[in-house]
Amino acid sequence: ITYDPLADLVEVITRDRPDVCVLFGPFLDAKHEQVENCQLLGSFAEVFKLCLKMIIEGTRSAGSQLVFVPSLRDVHHDYVYPQPPFLYPELPKDDKSRVHFVSDPCTLDVD
């Protein structure tokens, strides 16, 4: 799976430095052809973690707050509604204050 549009978004975040960026899934879409045909180079969880890593590391210099909202089409995540937030225990300590995983639905208070 290529994440070219997502890489473009990471570049925009780095360039424009928004205070907050809310990212809605799916991050690993159950309807993607490579997912449906099991043509991935790793497990669903591994591919998802690579996607998160690309976003988090790619926007680190911008200092933007990142909010990740799951989708029912995220193949690696729970297929229940309401959806719990993503779990990402590998999140680097330095990023914990700016990276937020929320449920779907959720309410956000952005100051």
Automatic annotation (TrEMBL):
It holds the Pfam family DNA_pol_E_B. It is found in: Nucleus. GO terms for cellular component: alpha DNA polymerase:primase complex. Residues 2-110 form the DNA polymerase alpha/delta/epsilon subunit B domain. One of its GO terms (biological process) is DNA replication initiation. The lineage of its organism: Eukaryota, Metazoa, Chordata, Craniata, Vertebrata. One of its GO terms (molecular function) is DNA binding. Its main location: nucleus. Belongs to the DNA polymerase alpha subunit B family. The keyword Signal does not apply. InterPro entries: DNA_pol_a/d/e_bsu, DNA_pol_alpha_bsu. Keywords: DNA replication, Nucleus. Transmembrane segments: none annotated. This is DNA polymerase alpha subunit B. It comes from Pandion haliaetus (Osprey). The keyword NAD does not apply. It comes from the Eukaryota.
